[in-house]
Amino acid sequence: MKPQYEGLVGDVGGTNARFALVDAQGHVRHPRSFPARDYASLADVIGEYLETTAGRKRPPRAVIAVAGPVLDGEIEFTNLDWQISEGDLLAHFEFEAVKLLNDFAAQALACPLLEPDALRPIGPVMRPGSDCPLVVLGAGTGFGVAGLARGDRGDLAVATEGGHAAFAPTDEVEVEVWRRLTARYGRASIERLLSGPGLFDLYQALADMERVNAPLADEKAVIDAAAAGDTLANATLDRFCGILGSVAGDLALSFGARGGVFVSGGIAPRMADRLASGGFRARFEDKGRLTPYVQQIPTSLVLHPYPAIVGAARELGQMERL
């Protein structure tokens, strides 16, 4: 008897573990989110989802997008104390096939499938280059980056650890921020700034430079305080958006991303208006001799609530055709 569902798909990050089932028509069903840190392992949270959602009609395949590098079918999570392999999941759940892939690689697979209402242009509305590479990036618990190479033979997602590349300051303020982060961590990567913890570190660094109090407790409080008119919090978010624009422009050059740059993650949607009207696009385009090149690249904010699930479902469909 054919199972009711063709596969399990998931998106597991440092904060949330999201799962859904894919039916025979390729539709994503029963999405559900769990607090990842409440579980001792990936198998535990998958088991709870399947028990409460699929019951006895377990899906035969699984594609799980994970926050971290997947090496030889194994993952050691960057921001969780979990380790798992495709073989472990095959044995534990008796799946026919399992694939782990980087969460931003899954998002890259999803980007060409997203409807217009799941995207918000950042800056001018432009048509992306046909069959040209694209890049997706985003700040959340960490900072993720992936590309998508496109061509006649199909699309290929390119997972990276670009968030751990070095942060490149662009003015004296950012040089001072870099010095403080380097003194604290030994090395200032992009993720040290463009992440939830990085946003809070940026707030504290700017307060120290201005010699003013920094009474807020975390990055969520900084975002809320900016909405309420707090001067330092607003300066922090403006600087954050500017740095994000610079990094996005660098990645557009690195990938040759004439197919577009997509900004996702948990933080960017909370400052959507600021991204659309602030310094993001100006910093994105500020690339010296290559400014005319990046000026032709569209930038979009991803509003879809679970793009990695969409990408995992696309990968599941490819597995079924093999």
Automatic annotation (TrEMBL):
GO cellular component, one term: cytosol
InterPro entries, sorted: ATPase_NBD (IPR043129), Bacterial_glucokinase (IPR050201), Glucokinase (IPR003836)
UniProt-listed HAMAP family: Glucokinase (MF_00524)
Organism superkingdom: Bacteria
Gene3D superfamilies found in the cross-reference section: 3.30.420.40, 3.40.367.20
Homology family: Belongs to the bacterial glucokinase family.
Amino acids binding ATP: G10, D11, V12, G13, G14, T15
Transmembrane segments: none
CDD domains, alphabetized: ASKHA_NBD_GLK
Lineage: Bacteria, Pseudomonadati, Pseudomonadota, Alphaproteobacteria, Caulobacterales
Subcellular location: Cytoplasm
Predominant place of localization: cytoplasm
Catalysed reaction equations from the record: D-glucose + ATP = D-glucose 6-phosphate + ADP + H(+)
Record's protein name: Glucokinase
